[in-house]
Amino acid sequence: MTTAVIIQARMGSTRLPGKVLEDLGGRTVLSHVIERCQILRNADVVCCAVPKSADSDPVAAEAERCGAVVFRGSENDVLDRYFQAAVSLDANVIVRVTSDCPMIDPDVVAQVIELLKDSDADFSTNNLPPSWPHGLDCEAMTVEWLTRAWKEAVEPMDREHVSPFIRRHPDARIVNLEGPGGSLTDHRWTLDYPEDLVFLRALFAVLPSGQKIPGLEQILGVLKAHPEIAAINEIHKTVTAGKSF
User: Fold this and answer.
1) Which residues pair with 51 in a beta bridge?
2) How large is the angle between the packed helices 216-225 and 194-206, nearest 10 degrees?
3) Total structural domains in the chain?
4) Phi/psi class of residue 231: alpha, beta or left (left: φ > 0; alpha: ψ in -120 to 50)?
C-alpha cells in the first residue's frame, strides 16, 4: 500500500502572487512544506502537483530541487490534478497538503493518516470542526473516494478544492482528528496575505535554529513569549482561505 503526500502548489495567487517561492528564513516557503512532509513517519512519497502553465515552471523546479516528485497537471481543475498525480504514483492513500502552510506539523499529519487507516474510514481530516491552528490543516483519503470524486463531481468548487464532494457525501465514512484543546483556532499560521508573510518571517526569526523542526508546542511557547508577533496578522484570523480547509 502506497501512501502519497500530494502538495498542491502554483505560482498564481490573487492575494499574494508567487507566495510559495517567498523567502522564509533563508529558504522558500515551499521548501519548508516539502521538508516537513518528507519526515512523515508513515508516508512513502512526497509529490508536488503543479500546473502545466509556464508561469509555474519555477515552482516545479524548486520542488524538484527539494527532492519531491513533480507532477504537472490542470491549472484550475485541481481535483483532476490530484487524481492524475495519484494514478502516476500508484497511491492507495492520498494525503492533501497545501503549499501555503510552512508550519504544517508532521506529527499532526501522521496522526490524520493513522486515523484514516485505523478507523477503516474513507476520509480523515483535522478541521471538521476546526480545532487546530489554521495552517496545520490536512486531509487523507482513499484512492477509491478520490476516484469517485473525480468521476462524479461537477460543481466548480468541487473541482477546484478537491475534497468538498467527499466531505458532504452521505456515503463517505469521515473521521476527524480533534486538537488537544484550548483556543488553538485563534492562531493563523498560513500564508495568504502580506501580513501573513510578515508574521511568518517574524516567527522564524525567533524560532530556535539548529534543532529539529519545531512542532506545535514549541511554536505556541514562542508566540506566548512574543505576543507582538501573533498580533501581526490578527486582521485575517477569521479568514478561512477558501480552499475547503
Assistant:
1) 73
2) 90
3) 1
4) alpha
Residues 52-97 have pLDDT tens digits of: 999 999 999 999 999 999 999 999 999 999 999 999 999 999 999 9
CATH of the domain at 77: 3.90.550.10
- State which residues form the domain around 166: 3-236
β-pairing verdict for 123-125 and 139-142? antiparallel
Q: 76: which 3 cell numbers?
A: 484550475
d(CA 139, CA 158): 15
78: number of CA atoms within 13 Å, CB side? 22
Q: Are 9 and 52 in contact (CB under 8 A)?
A: no
Q: Is residue 111 part of a domain?
A: yes
What is the dihedral sign for C-alpha 234, 214, 131, 174? positive
Sorted by sequence, the CB contacts under 8 Å of residue 141 that are 6+ apart come out as 93, 94, 96, 116, 122, 123, 124, 163, 166
